Amino acid sequence: MRGGRRHIDTLHRGWFSFGVNPHLVSASDLALQESFLLGTLPPSAFDHRAHVVLAYAFLAQSGVDAAFGRLRAGLHDYLRAQQIDAAKYHETLTRAWLLAVWHFMQQTPQTSSAGDFIARHPLLLDSGIMLTHYSSQRLFSSEARRRFVEPDLEPIPQQ
Question: In CA terms, which of 13, 96, 131, 140 is 20 to 30 Å from 149?
């Protein structure tokens, strides 16, 4: 573990431990986030890209743990608001994608929006990328849906 406890604290608090955030959110990012949080985002507009934008926006506003908590709660609320079966929520995919977005944010000096960030990292638009880290059997198991499970093929980079 590089950097010991300080590295872990920084990972979980994000840039806020230093008072500087190089990643900005645009009005468009905030509008998507607000409609998601209000439960008014049409399901047809909640595609993979929208998930990545939300992960970016939550991470740009807080560290990993807080972003994950907000995203998880938001997803559960959204499913209720849209009257979608709560079983659709997938804990491992949610956390793994958040960590993937976080990894790329750590590699990017500054961004002006989620769109800017995604343009620099188009690989994040490949919704199948988690299958390079997880076997299908593990990722799509009922256990992975209920709680976060570690990858069985390749670790998700976290810095």
Answer: 13
Looking at this protein, which amino acid is placed at residue 27? A
Please name the residues in contact with 6: beta carbons below 8 A apart, sequence gap of 6 or more: none
On whether residue 15 sits in a domain, the answer given is no
- Report the distance separating Cα 11 and Cα 3, nearest Å: 11
Q: Does residue 137 lie in a domain region?
A: yes
Q: Quote the tokens at residue 97.
A: 């994608």
Residue with tokens 């804990």: 91
Taking 3-state DSSP, the helix, strand and coil percentages for the chain, each rounded to the nearest 5, stand at 65, 0, 35
Q: Which domain holds residue 126?
A: 23-146
| Structural domains counted in the chain | 1
Contact 154, 145 (CB under 8 A): no
**Interval 41-66: pLDDT, tens:** 999 999 999 999 999 999 999 989 99
Distance of CA 12 to the CA centre of its chain: 13
CA atoms of 5 and 26, how far apart (whole Å): 33
Cβ-Cβ contacts under 8 Å for 93 (sequence gap 6 or more): 130, 139, 144
